[in-house]
Amino acid sequence: MKISRLYLYLTIAVTLSVTNPAFPQENSGDHDHDHETHTTDLAKHDESDEHHHKHKNGDTNEDDDAHDDEENASRISGDMADQVGISTTFASEKILHQTITSYGVLSTGPEQLSHMRARFSGLITSVKASIGDTVKAGDLLAEVESDESLKKYSVRAPISGTLVQRHANTGEVTKDQVLFSIADFDTLWAELRIYPAQRDNVSTGQAVEIVSDKKTIAGKISHIIPSLNKPYQLARVQLDNRQLGLSPGLLVEGRIVIDEFKVSLAVEKEAVQQLGGRSGVFIQEEETYHFAPLILGRADDHYVEVLDGINVNQRYVNRNSYLIKADIEKSEAEHEH
Amino acid sequence: MIDSILHLAIERRYLFLSLIFIVIGIGVWSYQKLPIDAVPDITNVQVQINTAAPGYSPLEAEQRITYPVETALYGLPKLAYTRSLSRYGLSQVTVVFEEGTDIYAARNLIDNRLGTIQSVLPPGIEPEMGPISTGLGEIFMYTVQASPDATMTNSQLYDATALREIQDWIIKPQLAQVKGVIEVNSIGGFNKQYHVTPDPKKLLYYRISVEELVNALQANNDNRGAGYIERNGQQLLVRSPGQLATLEDIGNVIITEHDSVPIKIQDVADIGIGKELRSGAATQDGKETVLGTAMMLIGANSRTVARDVASKLEAIQESLPDGVIAEPVYDRTQLVDKAIATVAKNLLEGALLVIVVLFVLLGNFRAALITAAVIPLSMLATMAGMVRTGVSANLMSLGALDFGLIVDGAVIIVENSVRRLAQAQHNSGQQTLRERLNTVYEATAEVIRPSLFGVAIITVVYIPIFTLTGVEGKMFHPMAATVVMALLSAMLFSLTIVPAAVAVFLRGKISEKESVVITQSKAVYKPLLLIALKARWAVVSFAALLVAGCIWLATTLGSEFIPQLNEGDIALHAMRIPGTGLEQAVGMQEILEQRIKSFPEVDKVFARIGTAEVATDPMPPNVADNFVILKPRSEWPDSSKTKDELVEEMEASLKQLPGNNYEFTQPIQMRFNELISGVRADLGIKVFGDDLDQLVLTSNEILKAINQVPGAADARVEQVTGLPTLSVIPKRTALGRYGLNVVELQDWVSAAIGGEAAGLLYEGDRRFELIVRLPETLRRNIDRLAFLPVPLPNGDYIPLEEVATLDISPGPAQISRENGKRRVVVTANVRGRDLGSFVADVKARIGSDVDIPPGYWLDYGGTFEQLESASQRLAIVVPVTLLIIIGLLVMAFGSLRDALIIFTGVPLALTGGVLALWFRDMPLSISAGVGFIALSGVAVLNGLVMLAFIRDLWHEKGDLLASVVDGALIRLRPVLMTALVASLGFIPMALNTGTGAEVQRPLATVVIGGIISSTLLTLFVLPVLYHWVHRHSEHAVKAD
Questions:
Q1: How many Cβ atoms sit within 10 Å of the Cβ of residue B505?
Q2: Contacts of A235 in chain B (CB under 8 A)
Q3: In chain B, what percentage of residues exceed pLDDT 90?
Q4: Which residues in A lie closer than 8 A to residue B558 (C-beta atoms)?
Q5: Burial readout B832-857 (b: 16 or more C-beta within 10 A, e: otherwise)
Q6: pLDDT above 70 (res B20)
Q7: Mean pLDDT throughout A178-198?
Q8: Residue B1036 has pLDDT above 80, yes or no
């Protein structure tokens, strides 16, 4: 009996070892050992582990913030931080420029385009200007002999600008047609479409950057007009086109500075990370970086206003902050297949 | 029957001897075909179905691809189970078949099924089966790098895109030709793509949609054949080439007219060579690189294939542009060579030791050679058998071969023949041929039965190994099969060739005088045996105490699976938090590798991040597989440092790097883990159901319940969420107001961010995708995405935020399914209590505390399940095996009592094994277990031979005590011989420190220790027991 039991025992012992969970990586003894060193040597890490553990347990009781911050921390030596490209900066006062983007078409103002007709229909006796000529207001463009009075009268440019159309040749009869079109492209209007979602933020007087191709032109919203039967309104921005050579009809992008204000405290947008469902930055205290959940206010492209959670002149991580988030959360990083 | 075979063998001895040449012929031929590898292949029969789904999020990949594929596979014959994984841009369904299923047939069936669902899948999506390879498949890896000053033909430096092009179009096609290579997998760099990046403003201005642009590209990029014309008897082929070839060609494609002016692509878009949205990257020594992996076909010979690939790669180097280097970074040949060298050295040294022992103890050189000849012959026969049964030669299958054990049968026969021949010569001088043949026949017949029974018993004790299933089974079946084959062939030879050889070669004068060693031993043995027979109480109780002590000792030994084969290299997973971007991961990887490289022991380090082109191992970008190739030990600053120490140092150093978690393993081991991929905790509770949120909720409740059960440790829920997702959610009413359909919005968003394929560009064989996608500046700036103009059907446009809400929130990182249902796994380990009661407690606790909604169910799995089934199986198999052994013994002796006496040999043999393990501070492992099994066999064999003799003597002479003493003395030589050859044969294995020796060491240690104790037992305890048990029957005999 004893004999068979020994055999049985040994075989089962062997089987036990086969099915030992800790394999095939390491034997269970090693595993325990590992765990111990972990708790003693890396107490900091363990604390954060514990925190996550709690989190996972569905422990929704939020600890008070101060306590929480303590746990969401990571230690990184100065050399190491340099090596991995972590850099810090001070939280400070900033001027924020909030902008929105909208698109619109360049157009000329009504006063900048003139289509001239003959006052009395008659025979054109001479034409003085041709397409492409730059004319000033009052310049002689053509002479017409009136059919009724048979007197010659002058057709003069009503506005300065460029002659863009000419439908008049010597010897032709004017009838009703447009003889000349003069357009003044020295100033153009960008008519930016303001859709309902943006309407509240846009008002006259706001600065605008108009981007066309590679050019950026500064301007201001002169007025906002509703458009007919369209869901949007037009914010009109006057552009000085003398040097730019833009043409009407072109589609441009407008970056409207909807607000510009000074905030007493702001951090770089790039620095903000999410941790445990909250946004915040990592504050450096010597070699420790701990997570400070922030209450964030308004933001622009680069900075975001901080209402609470960090003090002026505290150092926070502005480059590679993701690494610190990764370090704190790394206990969750596992390899699943 | 045995007698007639023996007769035949001795009568037709020359014929039988010529059998040797046939055996050698078959053996050598088989050796050529024998697959050789370092370790046995433990991969199950599986087929991976990978579907690349560019741009699909996990949810979409699951719904559109994974689900139809899974459903198509329902009811496949011999299907064990399916599991699947849906990730960004990838759906992978792994189909596992029952053991022994023909992989090609299985793939055929799957192929049929996949063909039928093609219409259900989204257009352009095609499921593909993974390469026909296994966990041992990744045999060769190389990187493609350019020297820093090497320039391309356009005098620019090589970048990752150019290197990838070289890999894909110069190296890969050539390597794929190598016989035995099933796939060459690329990772790293960027697939070259031609990018057309339209400026949305210009599109709006000219009122051109992305679709028109794509259509224009597609309609202007084709060659067409147009038949032929016959002119003046000559045939002219007609073709109209129209494929785009250069960036300029692309720019000049006309999209439409605007005020009668043609609008070309270059008017609205930038055109350039761009980077794909890749899913994986590779690094080497802290720099980005391109990594190629040659994968071996199932069942091919890894050593030859790896060697061929290496020489092919060298040849390919010639064809690479100047300055571009394809460098081998991992070559399986080295490991296999080292492992095989270890095995070969062990076997050779073992065989030599066996010959020496035979010669010394037999005192007859010819006899020693005849016995030793069984070694190579049975080895060759075994190889033939391995080829027939498809067992590959590796550390495990060859690791348990002990030539000492194998020749036991032959030793007994030859020894007896020598003894009888010497005796006969002593009695009647020189014998005639007939007489000699007769003596040989009698001598052989005398011991053939016990030795055949012995070998049969050794074979039977291997039965429990054959009942192991799963990974353990795969690991140890080849070992048991090889040993059994070797034993059986040796048995066959001792029945045929050995007697024939004895009859032929043992002529002339046979020295009757036994060698000095034996006479000396006999002089010592006899008085000791007499004392033992007197002090039988002391002997028996000492033996009993020893057994009891060793049982206790065995419980104090640690336990481990199999001792891990040291592959000589290190593999480590570097894991970052889910959601880490690929470029961020590459950055972190570079720092990590610089640090690893700074170890003087490290030769090179390289890594795969994310998923390769062929998703054999789909990893998210936050996981990297690092391979650390170590320098030869002689180049280490401290060559006495062990690999474990190095790993420890490395781990400590790497832990300082922020943001990484590590898991150290070895290359082959890592691959096996990836492929087998079961639940590796003690208890795994799989929660099945439909709604992901509900699954997570239920899992968390289960986790809470488990944590309240005493003994629970490391309990955790599988991470399924946490991948930040930017959702563009259409506002349906707003869309309606502007006359847009949801699909138009989605098309625009996907074209804007992901890009839209617009055909291929050909450069000879090379083909590159043409992609239309919005400029990088627009894609990168999430805040600005809200203002992205969306074109309306009437040519107008609206900003995206008018018609959609943008929302960033964590979404599912991956969706795992098993057997066609979503699942989340909760795992836990157990500390300080037994698994069975823990599982029962957990079940009860979950039953009372957790409310599982209808439509959801649980499945309890994990190692506890394996343990349960293994224990149940062994609880039947082990007693049955023991019964079979006793049955065989009873058959041999016709007496249950004698059978039981012999059987006592088993526990006593085991004591020596346990003591030897304890002495060498080794844990109880499966390898050791196999050693114990072999031991039981040897113990029985020795006991059998000894008792058979004593009993025959007793029946002849009638004096029990005299028979016991005489019989024991006569059998001293064979017992000592079998013991010595078996233990000495294992000594090289026990002491070797080469690659792979760690697997064999425990086995050899157990056998050596056990044989010492078993020999002592056979020599002292058995005679004592026999005498004691039969002393009453002696009275009975006397009374008669």
A1: 14
A2: none
A3: 22
A4: 27, 29
A5: eeebeebbebbeebbeeebebeeebe
A6: yes
A7: 87
A8: no
DSSP letter assigned to residue B1017: I
pTM: 0.81
Beta-strand pair B766-772/B192-198: parallel
In chain B, where the domains are located: 2-38+336-562+868-1039, 44-133, 193-223+240-275+724-812, 570-676, 683-720+815-861
Query: Residue B343 and residue B358: Cα distance in Å, rounded?
Result: 22
Please, how many CA atoms are within 13 Å of residue B408, restricted to the half-sphere of its CB? 38
pLDDT digits over B41-62, tens only?
888 889 999 998 888 888 889 9
| Predicted confidence band of residue A50 (pLDDT cuts 50, 70, 90) | very low
User: Using 50, 70 and 90 to split pLDDT, how confident is the model at B513?
Assistant: low
How do the domains of chain A map onto residue ranges? 2-33, 65-94+262-332, 99-108+186-261, 112-183
CATH: 3.40.50.10140, 3.30.2090.10, 3.40.50.1450, 1.20.1050.10. Which one for B193-223+240-275+724-812? 3.30.2090.10
Please tell me the least confidently modeled range out of A218-222, B241-245, B465-469: B465-469
The mean of the pLDDT values for chain B is 85
* Binary contact (A4, B879; C-beta < 8 A): yes
Residue A327: predicted pLDDT = 86
CATH architecture observed for domain A112-183: Beta Barrel (2.40)
Pairing mode, strands B721-730 and B661-665 = unpaired
Cross-chain CB nearest to A103 (options B204, B591, B783): B204
Q: Indicate the angle between helix axes B403-428 and B972-991, nearest 10 degrees.
A: 150
CATH of domain A65-94+262-332: 2.40.420.20
Residue A325 or A31, more confident:
A325
Q: Is A84 in contact with B658 (Cβ distance < 8 A)? A: yes
Q: What ipTM did this prediction achieve?
A: 0.75
**Which secondary structure element, helix H or strand E, spans residue B663, and what is its range?**
strand B661-665
Q: Which residues of A touch B619 (CB under 8 A)?
A: 335
Predicted confidence (pLDDT) at residue A3 exceeds the cutoff of 80: no
Question: How many beta-carbon pairs under 8 angstroms link A with B?
Answer: 216
Q: Cβ contacts (< 8 Å) between A14 and chain B: which residues?
A: 924-926, 928-929, 932
pLDDT of residue B625 exceeding 50, the answer is yes
Residue of chain A whose alpha carbon sits nearest to that of B834? A16
Structural contact between residues B89 and B813, judged by C-beta atoms closer than 8 angstroms? no
Q: Output the pLDDT for position B562.
A: 58
Most confident of the ranges A23-32, A166-175, A327-336, B288-297: B288-297
pLDDT of residue B560: 62
Chain B closest-CA separation from residue A145 CA (Å):
36
For the beta carbon of residue B345, count every other beta carbon within 10 angstroms.
15
CA geometry: angle B868, B873, B874, nearest 5 deg: 100
Amino acid B613: pLDDT? 87
Residue A332 contacts B where some CB pair is shorter than 8 Å: yes
pLDDT number for residue A35: 39
Residue range B44-133, CATH number: 3.30.70.1430
Q: Which of residues 210-229 of A touch B (CB under 8 A)?
A: 212
Find the CB nearest A100 among B578, B674, B787. B787
CATH class of B2-38+336-562+868-1039: mainly alpha
Per-residue model confidence (pLDDT) at position B563: 60
For A320, name the nearest residue in chain B, comparing CA atoms only.
B584
What is the Cα B9 distance to its own chain's centre? 44
Residue B310, CA distances (Å) to B181, B315, B1013 in order: 12, 9, 50
| Nearest residue in A to B876, CA atom | A8
Q: Do domains B2-38+336-562+868-1039 and B193-223+240-275+724-812 have the same CATH topology?
A: no
Cβ contact A251–B559 (<8 Å):
no
